[in-house]
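We store chain and fold; thus.
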Amino acid sequence: MSVVIDANGQLRELAPGENPRAGEVVVEFGQGAPAATDLDAQLITDDGETFDIDLDSEIASIFDQIEQGIDPTQNEEFATAAGGQNGSSPTGTGDIDRTALQTRVTTDFDTTGLESQGLSETQSLALVDIVAEIIITSEVDTTPVDDNAPEFSQASYAFSYNENRAVSDVLGTVSASDADGENVTYSITTNVTNAGGDNLFEINATSGEISLTAAGVSAFANDFELDPNVHNLVVTATEDAGLGSVQTANVNVALTELNLDDNAPEFSQASYAFSYNENRTGSDVLGTVSASDADGENVTYSITTNVTNAGGDNLFEIDATSGEISLTSAGVSAFANDFELDPNMHNLVVTATEDAGLGSVQTATVNVALTELNLDDNAPEFSQASYAFSYNENRTGSDVLGTVSASDADGENVTYSITRNVTNAGGDDLFEINASGDISLTAEGVLAFANDFELDPNVHNLEVTATEDAGLGT
């Protein structure tokens, strides 16, 4: 607004379109006007021109008094310029609530500087009063008030972090500010604890950085394989007590723990031993190994140490997904499938390999012993296709006339019997055989034609049977 100070120091508001008279001072202030310390005041000269008035010295003097706790608007000299509504502080320039620091005192202002620029003493005092009122009002209006609580930069926070963190690792940072300019500190008011009640997370009171406590580093909050993997906190921002009552604000923070590839596959057993019968087919499962990965990665199987035939062909194979071990086509036709062909013990090394889902690929190995078992797949076999023995007449019952021999490739014991014998007139058998395959005359045979050359016949045909025991089956 524009205010006019006449030659007697009386004030009036400059009406729209009104031209001030010669000798009057026009002051611009209020809404749309310059700042209090950059007030615009002009003196109207006799020829109607305007002359800018220098107020620097007066403004400096007013600020000096304010710093001393003096209210410069209460100077006695200003009374000469006061005149009710048209006095030195007209209605509309603003009301000021006095404080204890604004003490009413008598202060002399030197107005010679303004008077030397063409103003009367009353105009000078009125102008200084206006400037003082505006400056004091500005000082009062800018006094800070604690009318704002801290405010977080987000309505909520969600952070993800890898497992296996150290205490010094920052998992996430929250931030809050106070519109009143007060300092803000942070604390966790709802935490996650271990079984012993120890807090697993902490926050830097100044920076808002969230990290694990020592207890948290060694707890489920730092090991993805231990549930749970999502941890919910409540963080409180607290302003300091600089401007009065202390106000706070809360925010929810969700921390999601991520899985790392920190576990190699692990077999369900330290080693495996399987037995299988000989004469298997390629589709027969000889044994199954199993491994799992604590990080949840898929595992595949391979045989990294195999058994080979003379041509270097692998005799065993494994299903990469199921871990089932079987014979290869080369193995079906090799010693690994025929007990009668050594060796019968076959040692493999199986490797379990995790996939690359979480980063580096890790493996584990296990020893697998395969023992080939014998089946009764061989009949006894005589050492000769037939036997022919000669013996002198007049033998005793203990004399061995000849010996047959049979063996079983399956290793079973063999016993002998005469299944077609020679008999006397009474039907008595004339020959017998013992467990060793020794053939001799029976008591009847010693007395019969079979022991007297002069009595025919002299050639005697027997049929001897070798029988394996029942150890392996039929």
In short: The longest helix spans residues 121-141. The mean pLDDT is 86. The radius of gyration is 59 Å. The longest strand covers residues 248-258.
